[in-house]
Design a protein that fits this description.
Elements: E1 2-8, H1 16-26, E2 27-39, H2 44-47, H3 52-69, E3 76-82, H4 85-96, E4 100-104, H5 110-115, H6 118-125, E5 129-133
Parallel strand pairs: 1-2, 1-4, 2-3, 4-5
Helix pairs in contact: 4-6
């Protein structure tokens, strides 16, 4: 059983309910579940063409989506980070002293084998146990 579990949630995929169920099953008594979404910033060359209001508005909409995803789960704390998803999840896990990360995966395409998916990066760099859900 784990005392501090981070569930990496992608707002584009529907894995959150099953991931939270797994987290609850693995949580020790008195343990904590953190639902984390990493918001990847717009790349520099594209950002030059966007108003700051547009960029910040997109971030706030993502925050609202995350809050909505965990609204019916009072035992889950939502956390939004800015940065590359694989790196943000592992860095946050290390800073928080997490002992488990739950992350979803999909059937990898060719680019995932060459570049690595978020789940693969988390597995390679996590400072703790990782449970990968398909």
């Amino acid at each position: 059983m784990y005392r501090k579990i981070i569930v990496g949630l992608s707002l584009e995929h529907g894995i959150s309910e099953s991931a939270l169920e797994v987290a609850r099953a693995l949580r020790a008594d008195g343990g904590e579940i953190i639902a984390l979404h990493a918001y990847e910033p717009v790349q520099g060359s594209v950002r030059a063409y966007l108003d700051e209001e547009v960029v910040e508005g997109a971030y706030k909409r993502a925050q609202a989506q995350l809050a909505e995803r965990v609204a019916g789960a009072p035992d889950v704390t939502p956390v939004m980070l800015r940065g590359h998803s694989g790196r943000a999840i592992t860095d946050y896990a290390e800073k928080q002293g997490a002992d488990c990360i739950i992350v979803g995966s999909h059937k990898p395409g060719l680019s995932d084998f060459l570049l690595g998916s978020t789940a693969a990066r988390v597995v390679r760099h996590a400072p703790c146990a990782v449970h990968v859900l398909r």
